[in-house]
């Protein structure tokens, strides 16, 4: 047997010290996870949103205002659903040019869409005006920024 002189100085280690097992490192399962304060999932939002556009037989571009939007929607809902339809609460969020954005209860979106689609429009000064639904969603973000979407496939 050959004997080696024991090492001295900082290089000197014992057999236990040379074993660099995972004893000194923290266990992976004990690593700290980020702390979540609140987690919420909205499965059924209270409101839905509709994006409408007015069409008319006039050569001049129509500028909508909130009063016209309210009048057109009330007329459509009254014609389709009677007094029940007039009772549907509508919030006019924005009116810009020929377009408007509305908020209504989620449960009433189907009835509202059917009423607007079935509405034949109104005649004022010999000009026929009607509403078209450009989009409906439970999330307002899904309706915002959709300009030019209809031109995507038409070239």
Give a verbal description of the structure.
The chain has 155 residues and is of the alpha+beta class. Helix content is 22%, strand content 24%. It has four helices and five strands, in the order αβααββαββ. It has helices spanning 15-18, 66-81, 83-86, 109-118; strands at 47-56, 91-96, 99-105, 122-124, 127-137. The protein has a five-stranded antiparallel beta sheet with strand order 2-3-1-5-4. Strand 4 (122-124) and strand 5 form a beta hairpin. Helix 2 crosses helix 4. The longest helix is centred in the middle third of the chain and has 16 residues, at 66-81. The chain is elongated and about 75 Å long.
* Cα-to-Cα separation, first versus last residue: 89 Å
Shape: elongated
How many H/I helical runs? 4
Share of β-strand residues = 15-25%
Strand order of the largest sheet: 2-3-1-5-4
Report the order of strands and helices: HEHHEEHEE
Tell me about the largest β-sheet: 5 strands, antiparallel
On the 0 to 100 scale, the average pLDDT is 81
What is the percent of helical residues? 10-25%
Structural category: alpha+beta
Please state the CA-atom Rg, rounded to the nearest Å.
34 Å
Oligomeric assembly: single chain
């Amino acid at each position: 047997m050959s004997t080696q002189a024991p090492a001295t100085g900082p290089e000197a280690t014992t057999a236990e010290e040379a074993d660099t097992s995972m004893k000194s490192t923290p266990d992976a399962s004990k690593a700290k996870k980020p702390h979540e304060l609140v987690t919420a999932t909205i499965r059924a939002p209270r409101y839905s949103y509709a994006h409408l556009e007015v069409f008319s037989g006039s050569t001049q571009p129509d500028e909508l205002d909130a009063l016209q939007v309210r009048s057109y929607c009330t007329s459509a809902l009254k014609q389709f659903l009677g007094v029940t339809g007039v009772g549907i609460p509508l919030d006019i969020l924005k009116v810009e040019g020929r377009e408007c954005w509305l908020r209504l209860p989620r449960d009433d979106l189907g009835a509202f869409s059917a009423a607007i689609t079935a509405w034949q429009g109104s005649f004022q000064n010999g000009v026929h005006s009607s509403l078209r639904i450009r989009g409906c969603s439970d999330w307002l973000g899904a309706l915002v920024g959709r300009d030019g979407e209809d031109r995507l496939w038409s070239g």
